[in-house]
Design a protein that fits this description.
Layout (H helix, E strand, L loop, with lengths): L2 H12 L4 E6 L50 E7 L3 H4 L16 H19 L4 E7 L6 H6 L8 E4 L5 H12 L2 E4 L14 E3 L4 H15 L3 E7 L3 H16 L8 E5 L6 H5 L7 E6 L4 H14 L5 E4 L19 E5 L8 H13 L6 H20 L19 E4 L10 E4 L3 E4 L6 E2 L3
Parallel strand pairs: 2-3, 2-4, 4-5, 5-6, 6-13, 7-8, 7-9, 9-10, 10-11
Antiparallel strand pairs: 1-3, 11-14, 12-13, 14-15
Helix pairs in contact: 3-11, 6-7
Pfam families: Peripla_BP_6
Protein name: ABC-type branched-chain amino acid transport system, substrate-binding protein
Family: Belongs to the leucine-binding protein family.
Length: 436
Protein backbone atom coordinates (compact mmCIF):
# COMPACT_ATOMS: atom_id res chain seq x y z
CA UNK A 1 0.00 0.00 0.00
CA UNK A 2 1.12 3.58 -0.61
CA UNK A 3 1.41 4.52 3.05
CA UNK A 4 2.40 8.10 2.29
CA UNK A 5 -1.05 8.49 0.77
CA UNK A 6 -2.53 6.59 3.70
CA UNK A 7 -1.07 8.83 6.36
CA UNK A 8 -2.09 11.98 4.46
CA UNK A 9 -5.62 10.59 4.29
CA UNK A 10 -5.46 9.84 7.99
CA UNK A 11 -4.13 13.25 8.94
CA UNK A 12 -6.76 15.05 6.89
CA UNK A 13 -9.33 13.75 9.37
CA UNK A 14 -7.22 13.54 12.51
CA UNK A 15 -5.43 16.90 12.63
CA UNK A 16 -2.45 15.48 14.56
CA UNK A 17 -4.10 15.50 17.97
CA UNK A 18 -3.90 12.83 20.61
CA UNK A 19 -7.67 12.82 20.97
CA UNK A 20 -9.13 12.75 17.48
CA UNK A 21 -12.70 12.83 16.27
CA UNK A 22 -12.91 10.35 13.42
CA UNK A 23 -16.58 10.03 12.69
CA UNK A 24 -19.65 11.71 14.14
CA UNK A 25 -23.13 12.72 13.24
CA UNK A 26 -22.06 16.37 13.16
CA UNK A 27 -19.55 16.16 10.32
CA UNK A 28 -19.10 14.54 6.99
CA UNK A 29 -16.93 11.43 6.76
CA UNK A 30 -13.25 11.91 5.93
CA UNK A 31 -13.58 10.18 2.58
CA UNK A 32 -16.35 9.60 0.09
CA UNK A 33 -17.74 6.09 0.14
CA UNK A 34 -19.66 5.36 -3.04
CA UNK A 35 -22.74 4.29 -1.15
CA UNK A 36 -23.07 1.54 1.43
CA UNK A 37 -23.34 -2.06 0.22
CA UNK A 38 -26.88 -2.36 -1.19
CA UNK A 39 -27.53 -5.60 0.69
CA UNK A 40 -27.32 -3.83 4.03
CA UNK A 41 -30.44 -2.53 5.74
CA UNK A 42 -30.81 0.74 7.56
CA UNK A 43 -30.90 0.64 11.38
CA UNK A 44 -34.17 0.36 13.24
CA UNK A 45 -35.39 3.58 14.84
CA UNK A 46 -34.30 4.02 18.45
CA UNK A 47 -36.96 3.58 21.10
CA UNK A 48 -38.27 6.52 23.05
CA UNK A 49 -36.09 7.41 26.04
CA UNK A 50 -38.68 6.31 28.57
CA UNK A 51 -38.62 2.77 27.10
CA UNK A 52 -34.87 2.55 27.04
CA UNK A 53 -34.08 0.87 30.37
CA UNK A 54 -35.73 -2.36 31.39
CA UNK A 55 -34.55 -4.97 33.83
CA UNK A 56 -34.86 -8.54 32.60
CA UNK A 57 -36.25 -11.16 34.97
CA UNK A 58 -32.87 -12.88 35.03
CA UNK A 59 -29.70 -11.28 33.78
CA UNK A 60 -27.77 -13.25 31.14
CA UNK A 61 -24.49 -14.75 32.40
CA UNK A 62 -25.34 -13.53 35.93
CA UNK A 63 -24.27 -9.99 35.05
CA UNK A 64 -27.00 -7.54 36.14
CA UNK A 65 -26.11 -4.98 33.46
CA UNK A 66 -26.72 -7.57 30.73
CA UNK A 67 -30.35 -7.73 31.81
CA UNK A 68 -30.93 -4.09 30.89
CA UNK A 69 -32.18 -2.81 27.57
CA UNK A 70 -30.43 0.50 26.90
CA UNK A 71 -31.05 1.96 23.46
CA UNK A 72 -30.10 5.48 22.43
CA UNK A 73 -30.62 7.84 19.53
CA UNK A 74 -26.83 8.23 19.25
CA UNK A 75 -23.93 6.13 20.55
CA UNK A 76 -20.48 7.17 21.77
CA UNK A 77 -17.67 4.90 20.62
CA UNK A 78 -14.02 5.06 21.69
CA UNK A 79 -11.60 3.57 19.16
CA UNK A 80 -7.98 2.84 20.15
CA UNK A 81 -5.13 2.00 17.76
CA UNK A 82 -1.32 2.25 18.03
CA UNK A 83 -0.69 5.06 15.51
CA UNK A 84 2.54 6.43 17.07
CA UNK A 85 1.79 9.95 15.80
CA UNK A 86 3.94 11.59 18.47
CA UNK A 87 6.92 9.50 17.41
CA UNK A 88 6.50 9.80 13.66
CA UNK A 89 5.90 13.55 13.75
CA UNK A 90 8.15 14.41 16.69
CA UNK A 91 10.02 17.17 14.83
CA UNK A 92 7.80 18.17 11.91
CA UNK A 93 4.51 17.55 10.18
CA UNK A 94 6.28 15.75 7.31
CA UNK A 95 6.98 12.02 7.27
CA UNK A 96 10.75 11.49 7.79
CA UNK A 97 12.21 10.14 4.56
CA UNK A 98 8.65 10.10 3.15
CA UNK A 99 8.42 6.45 4.27
CA UNK A 100 6.20 5.22 7.08
CA UNK A 101 8.06 3.25 9.78
CA UNK A 102 7.07 -0.41 9.71
CA UNK A 103 5.94 -0.39 13.35
CA UNK A 104 3.20 2.10 12.44
CA UNK A 105 1.62 0.05 9.68
CA UNK A 106 -0.48 -2.56 11.58
CA UNK A 107 -2.29 0.06 13.66
CA UNK A 108 -2.69 2.41 10.70
CA UNK A 109 -4.10 -0.33 8.47
CA UNK A 110 -6.49 -1.52 11.18
CA UNK A 111 -7.68 2.08 11.57
CA UNK A 112 -8.17 2.48 7.79
CA UNK A 113 -10.46 -0.56 7.67
CA UNK A 114 -12.37 0.58 10.75
CA UNK A 115 -12.78 4.08 9.31
CA UNK A 116 -14.36 2.66 6.16
CA UNK A 117 -16.80 0.62 8.29
CA UNK A 118 -17.75 3.70 10.32
CA UNK A 119 -18.19 5.88 7.22
CA UNK A 120 -20.35 3.18 5.65
CA UNK A 121 -22.55 2.79 8.72
CA UNK A 122 -22.90 6.54 9.01
CA UNK A 123 -24.14 6.76 5.42
CA UNK A 124 -26.73 4.10 6.25
CA UNK A 125 -28.15 6.37 8.95
CA UNK A 126 -26.28 5.19 12.03
CA UNK A 127 -25.97 8.13 14.42
CA UNK A 128 -22.51 7.70 15.95
CA UNK A 129 -20.00 9.85 17.75
CA UNK A 130 -16.66 8.09 17.39
CA UNK A 131 -13.48 9.32 19.00
CA UNK A 132 -10.16 7.86 17.90
CA UNK A 133 -7.28 7.66 20.37
CA UNK A 134 -3.65 6.97 19.57
CA UNK A 135 -2.84 4.34 22.22
CA UNK A 136 0.87 5.10 21.85
CA UNK A 137 0.63 8.84 22.28
CA UNK A 138 2.04 10.91 25.15
CA UNK A 139 -1.48 11.19 26.55
CA UNK A 140 -1.77 7.77 28.18
CA UNK A 141 -4.87 5.65 28.66
CA UNK A 142 -4.55 6.12 32.42
CA UNK A 143 -4.65 9.91 32.00
CA UNK A 144 -7.74 9.67 29.78
CA UNK A 145 -9.43 7.62 32.48
CA UNK A 146 -8.28 9.96 35.23
CA UNK A 147 -9.62 12.96 33.31
CA UNK A 148 -12.97 11.20 32.72
CA UNK A 149 -12.61 11.48 28.94
CA UNK A 150 -14.11 8.00 28.47
CA UNK A 151 -16.93 8.18 31.00
CA UNK A 152 -19.73 8.68 28.45
CA UNK A 153 -18.56 5.86 26.17
CA UNK A 154 -21.03 3.18 25.08
CA UNK A 155 -18.52 0.85 23.38
CA UNK A 156 -14.71 0.58 23.31
CA UNK A 157 -12.98 -0.95 20.27
CA UNK A 158 -9.23 -1.42 20.47
CA UNK A 159 -6.19 -2.80 18.70
CA UNK A 160 -4.15 -2.64 21.88
CA UNK A 161 -1.74 -4.74 23.93
CA UNK A 162 -0.60 -4.44 27.53
CA UNK A 163 -0.50 -2.23 29.51
CA UNK A 164 -3.34 -0.48 27.63
CA UNK A 165 -5.40 -3.69 27.46
CA UNK A 166 -5.41 -4.12 31.24
CA UNK A 167 -6.07 -0.42 31.87
CA UNK A 168 -9.00 -0.31 29.45
CA UNK A 169 -10.36 -3.61 30.73
CA UNK A 170 -10.38 -2.44 34.33
CA UNK A 171 -12.08 0.78 33.30
CA UNK A 172 -14.66 -1.07 31.18
CA UNK A 173 -15.48 -3.43 34.03
CA UNK A 174 -15.87 -0.62 36.56
CA UNK A 175 -18.06 1.45 34.21
CA UNK A 176 -19.90 -1.56 32.73
CA UNK A 177 -18.90 -0.75 29.14
CA UNK A 178 -18.35 -3.48 26.56
CA UNK A 179 -14.73 -3.51 25.38
CA UNK A 180 -13.65 -5.41 22.24
CA UNK A 181 -9.97 -6.34 22.03
CA UNK A 182 -9.40 -6.69 18.31
CA UNK A 183 -5.86 -7.94 17.75
CA UNK A 184 -4.08 -9.08 20.95
CA UNK A 185 -4.05 -12.93 21.20
CA UNK A 186 -3.89 -12.96 24.97
CA UNK A 187 -6.06 -12.24 27.97
CA UNK A 188 -3.31 -10.09 29.48
CA UNK A 189 -3.83 -11.69 32.89
CA UNK A 190 -7.45 -10.53 33.00
CA UNK A 191 -9.71 -12.96 34.83
CA UNK A 192 -12.69 -10.97 36.08
CA UNK A 193 -14.24 -8.89 33.30
CA UNK A 194 -17.43 -10.15 31.61
CA UNK A 195 -17.48 -6.92 29.57
CA UNK A 196 -14.29 -7.91 27.69
CA UNK A 197 -14.41 -9.57 24.25
CA UNK A 198 -11.21 -11.18 22.92
CA UNK A 199 -11.59 -11.63 19.17
CA UNK A 200 -8.02 -12.78 18.38
CA UNK A 201 -8.21 -16.12 20.18
CA UNK A 202 -5.72 -17.15 22.85
CA UNK A 203 -3.13 -19.87 22.24
CA UNK A 204 -4.97 -22.22 24.59
CA UNK A 205 -8.01 -22.01 22.35
CA UNK A 206 -5.81 -22.77 19.32
CA UNK A 207 -4.42 -25.82 21.15
CA UNK A 208 -7.95 -27.09 21.82
CA UNK A 209 -8.95 -26.61 18.18
CA UNK A 210 -5.87 -28.35 16.77
CA UNK A 211 -6.24 -31.22 19.22
CA UNK A 212 -9.89 -31.77 18.30
CA UNK A 213 -9.25 -31.48 14.56
CA UNK A 214 -6.36 -33.96 14.58
CA UNK A 215 -8.21 -36.48 16.72
CA UNK A 216 -11.30 -36.31 14.48
CA UNK A 217 -9.61 -36.07 11.07
CA UNK A 218 -7.69 -39.33 11.08
CA UNK A 219 -9.02 -42.79 11.95
CA UNK A 220 -5.58 -44.19 12.69
CA UNK A 221 -2.85 -41.76 13.54
CA UNK A 222 0.38 -41.32 15.37
CA UNK A 223 0.32 -37.94 17.12
CA UNK A 224 3.73 -36.53 17.98
CA UNK A 225 4.27 -33.14 19.58
CA UNK A 226 7.70 -31.57 19.07
CA UNK A 227 8.68 -28.83 21.51
CA UNK A 228 11.86 -27.15 22.58
CA UNK A 229 12.97 -27.05 26.19
CA UNK A 230 11.66 -23.56 26.98
CA UNK A 231 9.13 -22.51 29.58
CA UNK A 232 6.82 -21.14 26.88
CA UNK A 233 6.75 -24.26 24.69
CA UNK A 234 6.52 -26.50 27.75
CA UNK A 235 3.40 -24.57 28.74
CA UNK A 236 1.96 -25.02 25.23
CA UNK A 237 2.59 -28.75 25.41
CA UNK A 238 0.76 -28.81 28.75
CA UNK A 239 -2.21 -27.06 27.10
CA UNK A 240 -2.34 -29.79 24.44
CA UNK A 241 -2.23 -32.47 27.13
CA UNK A 242 -5.00 -30.76 29.09
CA UNK A 243 -7.10 -30.59 25.95
CA UNK A 244 -6.51 -34.32 25.38
CA UNK A 245 -7.48 -35.16 28.97
CA UNK A 246 -10.80 -33.33 28.79
CA UNK A 247 -11.71 -34.70 25.35
CA UNK A 248 -14.53 -37.24 25.69
CA UNK A 249 -13.90 -39.76 22.93
CA UNK A 250 -13.15 -43.47 22.95
CA UNK A 251 -11.22 -43.09 19.68
CA UNK A 252 -8.73 -40.46 20.78
CA UNK A 253 -5.03 -41.25 20.44
CA UNK A 254 -2.47 -40.20 23.00
CA UNK A 255 0.06 -37.49 22.18
CA UNK A 256 3.73 -38.44 22.27
CA UNK A 257 5.87 -35.53 23.43
CA UNK A 258 9.38 -35.06 22.04
CA UNK A 259 11.88 -32.41 23.12
CA UNK A 260 14.16 -31.29 20.29
CA UNK A 261 16.86 -28.71 19.66
CA UNK A 262 19.10 -27.61 16.81
CA UNK A 263 21.41 -30.57 17.42
CA UNK A 264 18.60 -33.12 17.03
CA UNK A 265 19.18 -35.14 13.86
CA UNK A 266 16.56 -36.23 11.30
CA UNK A 267 17.39 -39.83 12.22
CA UNK A 268 16.52 -39.17 15.86
CA UNK A 269 13.24 -37.57 14.80
CA UNK A 270 12.31 -40.51 12.55
CA UNK A 271 12.36 -42.84 15.58
CA UNK A 272 9.04 -41.33 16.64
CA UNK A 273 7.36 -41.74 13.24
CA UNK A 274 5.44 -44.70 11.82
CA UNK A 275 5.37 -45.84 8.18
CA UNK A 276 1.95 -47.54 8.24
CA UNK A 277 -0.26 -44.64 9.30
CA UNK A 278 -0.61 -40.89 9.30
CA UNK A 279 1.88 -39.07 11.49
CA UNK A 280 0.15 -35.98 12.81
CA UNK A 281 3.06 -33.80 13.87
CA UNK A 282 2.38 -30.81 16.15
CA UNK A 283 5.10 -28.15 16.28
CA UNK A 284 4.95 -25.62 19.13
CA UNK A 285 7.54 -23.21 17.69
CA UNK A 286 5.99 -19.80 17.11
CA UNK A 287 9.07 -18.23 15.52
CA UNK A 288 9.88 -18.68 11.83
CA UNK A 289 13.50 -19.76 12.42
CA UNK A 290 12.50 -22.51 14.82
CA UNK A 291 9.60 -23.67 12.66
CA UNK A 292 11.73 -23.93 9.52
CA UNK A 293 14.55 -25.64 11.39
CA UNK A 294 12.27 -28.51 12.42
CA UNK A 295 10.51 -28.59 9.04
CA UNK A 296 13.88 -29.16 7.35
CA UNK A 297 14.53 -32.13 9.61
CA UNK A 298 11.05 -33.51 8.99
CA UNK A 299 11.34 -33.05 5.21
CA UNK A 300 14.04 -35.73 5.11
CA UNK A 301 11.58 -38.23 6.60
CA UNK A 302 8.65 -37.24 4.38
CA UNK A 303 9.48 -39.75 1.64
CA UNK A 304 9.25 -42.67 4.09
CA UNK A 305 6.67 -41.53 6.62
CA UNK A 306 3.26 -39.97 5.79
CA UNK A 307 3.31 -36.58 7.50
CA UNK A 308 0.65 -34.02 8.32
CA UNK A 309 2.39 -31.11 10.08
CA UNK A 310 0.41 -28.71 12.28
CA UNK A 311 1.94 -25.41 13.35
CA UNK A 312 0.98 -22.38 15.36
CA UNK A 313 -1.18 -19.37 14.32
CA UNK A 314 1.98 -17.33 13.69
CA UNK A 315 2.72 -19.62 10.74
CA UNK A 316 0.17 -17.73 8.65
CA UNK A 317 2.89 -15.31 7.50
CA UNK A 318 5.65 -17.90 7.02
CA UNK A 319 6.53 -18.52 3.36
CA UNK A 320 7.68 -22.05 2.52
CA UNK A 321 9.26 -21.34 -0.86
CA UNK A 322 12.49 -23.30 -0.27
CA UNK A 323 12.87 -26.48 -2.37
CA UNK A 324 13.20 -28.74 0.68
CA UNK A 325 9.67 -27.83 1.77
CA UNK A 326 8.05 -28.79 -1.54
CA UNK A 327 5.42 -31.47 -1.03
CA UNK A 328 5.15 -31.05 2.73
CA UNK A 329 1.57 -30.86 4.00
CA UNK A 330 1.66 -28.02 6.49
CA UNK A 331 -1.29 -26.57 8.42
CA UNK A 332 -1.82 -23.78 10.93
CA UNK A 333 -4.73 -22.50 13.01
CA UNK A 334 -6.31 -19.07 12.72
CA UNK A 335 -9.34 -17.27 14.18
CA UNK A 336 -9.68 -15.41 10.89
CA UNK A 337 -10.11 -16.57 7.31
CA UNK A 338 -10.85 -14.47 4.27
CA UNK A 339 -10.72 -15.76 0.72
CA UNK A 340 -11.65 -12.21 -0.38
CA UNK A 341 -14.49 -13.37 -2.64
CA UNK A 342 -17.44 -12.40 -0.43
CA UNK A 343 -19.49 -9.24 -0.93
CA UNK A 344 -17.98 -7.21 1.90
CA UNK A 345 -14.40 -8.07 0.98
CA UNK A 346 -14.98 -6.93 -2.60
CA UNK A 347 -16.53 -3.73 -1.25
CA UNK A 348 -13.43 -3.05 0.89
CA UNK A 349 -11.07 -3.95 -1.96
CA UNK A 350 -12.82 -1.64 -4.41
CA UNK A 351 -12.65 1.25 -1.94
CA UNK A 352 -8.94 0.78 -1.25
CA UNK A 353 -8.18 0.53 -4.95
CA UNK A 354 -9.92 3.86 -5.58
CA UNK A 355 -8.64 5.77 -2.56
CA UNK A 356 -5.20 4.30 -1.89
CA UNK A 357 -4.40 2.79 -5.32
CA UNK A 358 -3.50 -0.42 -3.51
CA UNK A 359 -4.93 -3.61 -2.05
CA UNK A 360 -6.12 -3.67 1.56
CA UNK A 361 -3.98 -5.61 4.01
CA UNK A 362 -5.34 -8.34 6.28
CA UNK A 363 -5.28 -5.82 9.13
CA UNK A 364 -7.48 -3.47 7.11
CA UNK A 365 -10.00 -6.26 6.47
CA UNK A 366 -9.98 -7.12 10.18
CA UNK A 367 -10.51 -3.49 11.15
CA UNK A 368 -13.52 -3.23 8.83
CA UNK A 369 -14.96 -6.61 9.81
CA UNK A 370 -14.72 -6.21 13.58
CA UNK A 371 -15.90 -2.60 13.63
CA UNK A 372 -18.87 -3.24 11.36
CA UNK A 373 -19.85 -6.37 13.33
CA UNK A 374 -19.87 -4.80 16.79
CA UNK A 375 -21.24 -1.39 15.89
CA UNK A 376 -24.14 -3.06 14.12
CA UNK A 377 -24.71 -5.18 17.24
CA UNK A 378 -24.65 -2.04 19.36
CA UNK A 379 -27.07 -0.13 17.18
CA UNK A 380 -29.45 -3.06 16.72
CA UNK A 381 -29.56 -4.34 20.30
CA UNK A 382 -28.45 -1.44 22.46
CA UNK A 383 -25.56 -0.90 24.86
CA UNK A 384 -25.86 -4.36 26.41
CA UNK A 385 -25.96 -6.52 23.30
CA UNK A 386 -24.16 -9.36 25.11
CA UNK A 387 -26.92 -11.94 24.88
CA UNK A 388 -27.18 -11.44 21.10
CA UNK A 389 -23.51 -11.75 20.06
CA UNK A 390 -23.78 -15.42 19.10
CA UNK A 391 -26.78 -14.77 16.83
CA UNK A 392 -25.40 -11.81 14.90
CA UNK A 393 -24.79 -12.54 11.20
CA UNK A 394 -21.19 -12.57 10.03
CA UNK A 395 -19.66 -9.78 7.98
CA UNK A 396 -16.45 -11.29 6.56
CA UNK A 397 -15.36 -14.02 8.96
CA UNK A 398 -17.24 -16.16 11.46
CA UNK A 399 -17.03 -15.35 15.16
CA UNK A 400 -18.11 -17.58 18.01
CA UNK A 401 -17.88 -15.59 21.22
CA UNK A 402 -18.34 -17.83 24.24
CA UNK A 403 -18.00 -17.16 27.96
CA UNK A 404 -14.70 -18.27 29.52
CA UNK A 405 -14.66 -19.35 33.17
CA UNK A 406 -11.10 -19.43 34.47
CA UNK A 407 -11.99 -20.21 38.06
CA UNK A 408 -13.69 -23.43 39.06
CA UNK A 409 -17.30 -22.95 40.12
CA UNK A 410 -17.40 -19.43 38.69
CA UNK A 411 -20.87 -18.21 37.69
CA UNK A 412 -19.80 -14.97 36.02
CA UNK A 413 -17.54 -15.20 32.94
CA UNK A 414 -13.92 -14.12 33.24
CA UNK A 415 -14.36 -12.70 29.73
CA UNK A 416 -15.78 -13.69 26.33
CA UNK A 417 -13.52 -15.17 23.67
CA UNK A 418 -13.85 -15.99 20.00
CA UNK A 419 -13.71 -19.80 19.92
CA UNK A 420 -14.08 -20.13 16.15
CA UNK A 421 -10.77 -21.50 14.87
CA UNK A 422 -10.04 -22.36 11.25
CA UNK A 423 -7.54 -25.06 10.30
CA UNK A 424 -5.76 -23.84 7.19
CA UNK A 425 -3.38 -25.65 4.84
CA UNK A 426 -0.51 -23.65 3.44
CA UNK A 427 -0.46 -23.63 -0.36
CA UNK A 428 1.90 -22.45 -3.07
CA UNK A 429 -0.34 -19.64 -4.28
CA UNK A 430 -3.05 -19.44 -1.59
CA UNK A 431 -3.92 -21.06 1.72
CA UNK A 432 -6.90 -23.43 1.88
CA UNK A 433 -9.47 -23.65 4.68
CA UNK A 434 -9.92 -27.26 5.85
CA UNK A 435 -12.84 -26.95 8.27
CA UNK A 436 -16.05 -24.94 8.17
Amino acid sequence: MNHLVSIKHLLSGLALLVLISSCSSTRKSTSKVDGPPPSLSKPSPAKKPEDNKKEAAKAPFNVPAFGKEVKKASYNIAFFAPLYLDSVFANSSEIPGRTMPRYVLPGLEFYEGAQLALDTLQQQGYNLKVTVYDSKSRQSVSSLIRNKALDETDLILGAVSNPELKELSDFARNKEINFVSGTFPNDGGINNNPFLYISNSTLKTHCDALQNYIQDAFTTKNIVLFRRNTAFETRLAADFKASYDKMESTKKSRIREVVWNDATTPEEISKYLLADRTNAVIVTALDEAGAKSLLRKLSISAATYPLQIFGMPTWDVIKLKEPEFKGLQVYYSSPYYNDKTDYYSRYVSDYFRRVYKARPSDMAFKGFDLTYYFVKLLYTNGVYFNNMVSTSPKVITNYNFLPVYLKEGEETPSYFENKNIYIIQKGDSMDIKMNK
